[in-house]
Amino acid sequence: MTGMTGMTGETQRASRVSTRDVTVSYEGTEALHPTTIDFAAGEVTALIGPSGCGKSTFLRCLNLMNREIPHCRIGGRIFYHGHDINEPGVDLFSLRSSIGMVFQQPTPFHKSIRENILFAPKKHGRVRDRDEADELVETSLREAALWDEVKDKLGKSAWALSGGQQQRLCIARTLAMRPDVILFDEPCSALDPLSTMSVEETIRQIAATGICEAIVTHNMEQATRVSDRTAFFYLGELIEVGATRQIFSTPSDRRLVDYLTGRFG
Ligand SMILES: Nc1ncnc2c1ncn2[C@@H]1O[C@H](COP(=O)(O)OP(=O)(O)OP(=O)(O)O)[C@@H](O)[C@H]1O
């Protein structure tokens, strides 16, 4: 990747993504205070905390999505494979194919299921012929646990799928770019419980392949079901991070205890 500063140091080498004192300001007001955290391969990290605490703001830093927002400034260092991506000259097109993102509302294109999967790989020149395209479509849909449901209607509109299927299609579309990090911003908040369950299972299966994942969620049960690690944010500050089991069974910080016991939400 172009224009990235190399970084030595054990933690950065072991982590797929690391942040060091990352801050985000909107129009000069700091919404995210210095945040330092590591994300490892094959792990799911849940980002939790009350509304407006900066979870999505932080998540969007990890593939520099905030750069699209006018008057938004990202400070600090964000290491991806040990290279600082938070500097000018980084190729965002290429970065976002390696660090994919899945949003709250399923956002399939108004195209067929097959074309949804192939859209970005074609744009990046990664599909050479029909056989490669067929294989990529099948593999991506299988990895997102959607193949069996759609294999006989790949030419049909993605908009004809259920909400849960659309979200898994969006995950498949992301996987088609062969990312090694996927960011999920409340991916189940628009889904019913059964669809939620299948998306959660998909997230776990993806982690088992070695992909590093981070998920913003308001749903505490979801955090305990899908994540290995949990990070708690409050008023723009990362308060506590640790193994999910430990965070939910023996939280240290009083604000986290109050949040988990429903004193505020
Ligand atoms: N585009 C923006 N312009 C200005 N301020 C913003 C913008 N996006 C977020 N903020 C502010 O940054 C702070 C953190 O917001 P953010 O959406 O990251 O929180 P959150 O924890 O994800 O909230 P929620 O759970 O409600 O989605 C809030 O004060 C919010 O108003």
UniProtKB/TrEMBL annotation:
Keyword Lyase assigned: no
Name of one Pfam family that matches: ABC_tran
GO CC entries: membrane
One GO process term, biological-process aspect: phosphate ion transmembrane transport
Claim: Transport is one of the keywords in the record: yes
Any one GO molecular function term: ATP binding
CDD domains hit by this protein: ABC_PstB_phosphate_transporter
Region span, Disordered: 1-20
Amino acid composition bias (Polar residues), ranges on this chain: 10-20
Keywords: ATP-binding, Nucleotide-binding, Translocase, Transport
Domain ABC transporter stretches: 17-260
UniProt xrefs under InterPro entries: AAA+_ATPase (IPR003593), ABC_transporter-like_ATP-bd (IPR003439), ABC_transporter-like_CS (IPR017871), P-loop_NTPase (IPR027417), PstB-like (IPR005670)
PANTHER family for this protein: ABC TRANSPORTER I FAMILY MEMBER 17
Name this polypeptide is given: Phosphate ABC transporter ATP-binding protein
Organism: Thermophilibacter immobilis
